Amino acid sequence: MIEKIPFDLSGFTNSIVRKTWLLQxxxxxxxxxxxxxxxxxxxxxxxxxxxxxFGDYSMNELSVLRYGSQQRFYAGLEEIDNIVxxxxxxxDNTVIDYFSGWKELIISKEGYYxxxxxxxxxIYAATYDRSGIQSVSFEFSGCFPKTxxxxxxxxxxxxxxxIEIVISVDKIVSKSIIGGIQQKIIGMVGSAVGKAVDxxxxxxxxxxx
Length: 209
Fold this sequence. Notes:
Layout: E1 2-9, E2 12-22, E3 29-32, E4 36-37, E5 40-41, H1 42-46, E6 49-53, E7 57-58, E8 63-67, E9 70-74, E10 79-80, E11 83-88, H2 94-104, H3 116-119, E12 121-128, E13 134-145, E14 162-168, E15 171-176, H4 177-208
Antiparallel strand pairs: 1-2, 3-12, 4-5, 6-11, 7-10, 8-9, 11-14, 12-13, 13-14, 13-15
């Protein structure tokens, strides 16, 4: 999405002077659940996802160290918010069967917990720019469902049935492809500038000799 935003020059607003920004839309994204659970391929379940809500690492409490009358703050422990996924319920109930099977990988019928390696999975998401090129990718490591599907059946609202699942996650890693390209370009420019400065310094030193 291209937006023209007024640009203030030297403190005087001029409607003629404008800056064009290329902004990211929120709807260009894709969820990828690559694992097959309960005989259902996750890649088919992914297409029914309508909303993803997640937060990256946050520091709710900071470590405080006192130096006389002053205080110094240091980074505390990091916490990760849960992932909330909202799916449309297909007629064949594959979404419900998928997550019900996932819960069965956590706790056996006898009530015993299975090893984490049997139920922790990775989930991926990506956002795309308006040309369809992937801009940011997210990797959610160590995921498993914390809740079972909830139902809100009512004749008052004849909308599509939705299923909300809360997912626990161990680690969230985001990678910006555009940012990576920009860093490479900046690195190349910085390297070229450094070589040019070294060449100028070398020429000046030769003149002194």
